[in-house]
Structure formats: structure tokens, C-alpha cells
Design goal:
14% strand; 13 helices; Rossmann fold; 6-stranded parallel β-sheet; 3 domains; Methyltransferase, Methionine Synthase (B12-binding Domains), Chain A, domain 1; Multidrug-efflux Transporter Regulator, Chain: A, Domain 2; alpha/beta
């Protein structure tokens, strides 16, 4: 299903042009490519995505999928129709598949066809993990399946990050952490990847980061933004105290504190402890491109 390098025929199929046209794009330098010792042009996924964005090209066809993939035809149609419910169903199947690379191939396939990162995170991955969580709560799958799906999702996100188009460096940096006993880090990993794709330098502390460690990282790294993920419900008084200390440290360096996740309390924003609450990858992207320049508040 997934290729890290596309051929001339692959690119021609994506945009419904002749291979001669693709070769001309490559020879003109419009579409970056590498040539094999035999003279064949090969195209990295990130370069094809960059070319499509610069020229406002949308895929009008899909790359070939293995005949053994029973969801292949449905996925191909869903991509062109932007039928996200069908793609969510495919995500659930891949995440629960015994094949540890199935999910990575699927997410890469979506990205190859210009499904944006924030769309993958918000419209496929997030609802897909919610479905898996519901299946576990109903006893339809074992906790081992849920844990494996979570691990494979994190692994797929890490592998995908080597393929995505990264914008020019902004000179800004972010520290990303799951505070305290918070172990759910898929949302945080998505946030970190999104920051990196927008040209930020991300310092990823990951799950179960004590607030003292976050403060130490701020002191050492002096980031422009601290991004905290909170999913678990915890003692509100303790949380407010810990976040307050982090807030004082980041604000002392004129930085911004961003918090997301189901456990984020609106009163932290109302009391001025937190600058921005985000509830989606699209909201985080809006913050990076707009809110960071002109204000604070809640972005959805």
C-alpha cells in the first residue's frame, strides 16, 4: 500500500497526467527528484506534497493498492470523495491488525494523497481511537488489543514524521509534555509532529512528566511555547498548583502556555494561568499560524 519513494508512473497516476509531463516537471526542477544509476526518476513523498501545494494540485486518482487488502477499493474511493467515516473504519481495522506495519502504511497512503496532517489527526486518528476505546469498554476487544493499537499508532506517527513536508524553520521552539501521571500521549505526539511540520523545534518530554521536570526544561531550553496534554481527571487543586508554577516560569520568559486534552480545565484559562486551550489539531494549527501572533483564548 505504502511507498516511501514514488515512480514517474505513480506521480502521473496521482495527477492524471502523462509520464512525459512528470519528467518535464522534474527536468525543469519544478518537481524535485532523484535519479537512480539507471537514470530512472524517483520522487520523495514530501517533494510531491510540496509540488502539489505550490501548484494547488489535488490528486484525481489513487496509487495502486495490493489486491490482498480487502478494504483497498473502499479506501481509494473514500480518499477521492473525502469520506472520512469510511477512512475511520479502515483505521480501526489497521490499528487492530496483527501486522505491526499495517497502520503506518495506511496513514502514509492518506498523506500521499494530500490528506493534510491535521485532517489525519482530527478526522481519522482521533475518532478511530475513540471507536477502539468504546469497543474495549463494551468487551468487544481485550485490553491487549487497545494497548497494541495505541503503541502501533505512536509507532506509525514516528515513522510518518520522516516523510512529511517540513516548512522552513521559524526559529521558534516548543516543549511538549504529558503532565504528572498522564500516560495518554498520542494527542501530544500529534501536537509535536504538527509543530515540527510548521518549522518549529519540538522538545518532546512525553508521558508522565513531573511538573518539576517541565519547569527544568523551560529553564534550560527557553521555549516560546509549552504545550501540555491532559486527559485524565486529577485533583483540581493539585493540577492548578502545578500548572500555575509552569505558567509562572514560561510567562517569566514571555512565552505562551498551551493546554489540550479532555482533562484541561476551562477555569485555568479564565484565571489567566493558561493562555490557550486547544481541542483539536486544527485548533493547534490555527494557533501556530494566527493566535500566536495576535491573541490568546480557546481554539477548536
Amino acid at each position: 500500500m505504502q511507498k516511501t519513494i514514488l515512480s514517474t508512473a505513480d506521480v502521473a497516476r496521482l495527477f492524471n497526467v502523462t509520464e512525459t509531463t512528470v519528467k518535464r516537471w522534474a527536468d525543469e526542477g519544478t518537481l524535485k527528484c532523484q535519479k537512480t544509476p539507471g537514470g530512472h526518476r524517483k520522487f520523495a513523498i514530501r517533494n510531491v506534497i510540496e509540488f502539489a501545494e505550490v501548484n494547488n494540485f489535488e490528486p484525481v486518482a489513487t496509487l495502486t493498492m495490493p489486491e490482498s487488502d480487502e478494504r483497498g477499493p473502499a479506501v481509494q474511493v473514500a480518499i477521492l470523495a473525502r469520506d472520512f467515516p469510511t477512512l475511520v473504519g479502515a483505521f480501526v481495522q489497521k490499528a487492530l491488525s496483527p501486522d505491526p506495519l499495517d497502520l503506518f502504511r495506511f496513514l502514509s497512503y492518506l498523506y500521499e494523497h494530500r490528506i493534510h496532517l491535521w485532517e489525519i489527526y482530527d478526522k481519522v486518528l482521533s475518532p478511530g481511537m475513540a471507536v477502539i476505546g468504546t469497543q474495549w469498554e463494551r468487551g468487544e476487544i481485550d485490553i491487549s488489543h487497545e494497548h497494541r493499537a495505541s503503541y502501533e499508532t505512536l509507532d506509525a506517527l514516528a515513522k510518518m514524521q520522516t516523510q512529511i513536508l517540513v516548512k522552513p524553520a521559524t526559529g521558534k521552539s516548543v516543549v511538549c509534555a504529558c503532565l504528572g501521571d498522564e500516560a495518554h500521549e498520542i494527542g501530544l505526539r500529534c501536537a509535536s509532529n504538527l509543530f515540527e511540520s510548521e518549522g518549529w523545534k519540538s522538545h518532546y518530554l512525553g508521558a508522565r512528566s513531573p511538573h518539576s521536570s517541565v519547569i527544568a526544561a523551560i529553564r534550560e531550553l527557553r521555549p516560546d511555547v509549552v504545550c501540555l496534554s491532559m486527559t485524565l481527571a486529577v485533583d483540581a487543586k493539585v493540577l492548578a498548583q502545578q500548572v500555575g508554577q509552569i505558567s509562572e516560569m514560561i510567562h517569566g520568559g514571555h512565552g505562551i502556555l498551551v493546554v489540550g486534552g479532555r482533562g484541561a480545565m476551562p477555569e485555568l484559562l479564565e484565571n489567566g494561568v493558561v493562555d490557550v486551550l486547544v481541542s483539536s489539531a486544527k485548533g493547534l494549527l490555527d494557533f501556530m499560524t494566527q493566535t500566536h501572533r495576535n491573541g490568546k483564548g480557546t481554539v477548536h
